[in-house]
Amino acid sequence: CEICGVGEGGDGQYDPSGVQSLADALVYNRTLTALSLEGNGICGEGAEALAEALASRRTGWHNRTLKTLTLTAGAEIPLGALRRNELTELNLADRRLGMCEAVVLGAILVHSQSLHTLNLRGNLIDARGVKALTCALTPRARGLRCTVSTLSLAGNVIGPEGAKALASALHPDPQGIMNDSLTALNLADCAICGVGEGGDGQYDPSGVQSLADALVYNQSLTSLSLEGNGVDMEGGKALASALGSAGTGRHNTTLKTLTMIEGAGLPVGALRQNELLELSLAYRKVGVCDAMLLSAVLVHSKNLQTLNLKGNAIQSAGVLALSPALTTVPGEDPHCLSVLNLEGNGIGPEGAAALGAALVPDAASERCNQSIASLILNDNEISGPPGSDITNGLEALAAAVRGSLSLTHLDLSRNHVGPRGTAALASGLYQSKSLKSLSLTGNEIGGEGAEALAAVIASDPEDGHTRSLSVLDIRYSNLSPASAKKLAQAIGAHPAQWTYLNTIPLADVAHDRVTSLELVGSGIGIVGAMVLARWLRFNHSIERIDLAGNNIGYAGAEALSVAFSPNEDGVKNKSVTSLNLSGNGVSLEEVGNIFPPLISIVVRRNTIMMSSTAG
């Protein structure tokens, strides 16, 4: 009806006098129960006039009979039901509500004493609208208090100022008065850091910082959702401090769930109360900010045993934030964390260095981690980009291997570790007291790296070398036959030490515990074939071996065949009757000449099976 003077196409000049007159009439009218004003572009002074008519904060006179007010098509505000405390839940999600509706809602909620859930998700409420709503969230005179426990403003661009307004309601005023009813607040995708979904705007952490300040004092909020707001390190630090990152001073003790990324709610309460033994946030887009928050809570968590952060984007900055929380000093209750999985997080050399440092006692404070047994760091570019072979991260990890009494398994697969990096890591293996399993799968360790490992493996305990390693995985390392031979000889010199090599169960082979070996496509490599031959020579139980798809070539097949030829003591394997070498780059003619005729050899070519069997 253009009661504000502006037509559908935007022609005309805004004039709130018509709405103000209607509002004045509402104060005294006792017959009107429904009023529809949608499509009139009411805002500012008009909205304030309607709010005053519905719940006067100045004169005490206000309308008590209007049941429904419609300012946006399809979004009736049930004034009567709210006023008479007939509603416990109000859902106005995705109704294109704006500032005007928020102002009116804020006014009527003052009189509602039954509403527990208010869903305003996906509307057009801005900072001004939020400021109007917060008036209804704070304790009021005449014995009235807010009853809303769950509020969702997700998808409303409230900005930093809107976040500050909400924070003011959650923070005690000079008289110590604050909202104590709200338990769940959803501010997802609200641009509270000043940057919208499309990247428009300027980053401003003040809104998040205000919310963090409020969290320190608020003791009612148990769930806070901030995903989709692009909170960066400044905001992350503020939130971490509110949760108690320093481990001392005043901090929030009631928040149970903090969500920074959709689908990745951080169970703050359960961690703080030591209720979790395992936490998996794998593939949840966890970033630096989330790592900061996790660090803040882990300071207080002593029961967590497994933390899986696989496939995220924590990077080196996140690890730098996380590492201190993993450590304790003598006299403190130690952590129980035994498994830390950071696979595929791009932590780089600096992140690896930080983790390595956390596992070694600090010279001044003796602070370190004494619980982590399994550290999974594959696919993290610990040696830098391909070809870099940066060693500082590996040197720190070598120091950790040398000094840790808890670390038993270290996975560094596919980290572009080159010869220098392997040599740096090997230096820590000489004095290793606890490390039993090391994976270097998919690294270009080269001849220098293989020789460095061989030297460690062949070292003599009488020289002070502890040599705790019993599981080694160096598959897909492109070793030359010469390098593979040196490594195989070193491993073979101490057969009782080894449990696994490249997925080959050496201990089972050595103790005649298996009758068949299934190693299809396991990438045992030439060195694996050489070592397996050494163990097979003395085995009496294995009858069938399947090595299909290992691409060991003729050199690997030839190395394996040694097991079936007598050594100087006349010892050879007599139990194996079937060997599958399909997919290894060898022909039946080639292998038929190097294996004894009593073994059935299978080689598949173009789906045709050929075999050589003793006749």
Automatic annotation (TrEMBL):
This is Uncharacterized protein. The keyword Endoplasmic reticulum does not apply. Its main location: cytoplasm. One of its GO terms (cellular component) is axoneme. Keywords: Repeat. The keyword Repeat applies. Signal peptide: none annotated. It is found in: Cytoplasm, Cytoskeleton, Cilium axoneme. PROSITE patterns: LRR (PS51450).
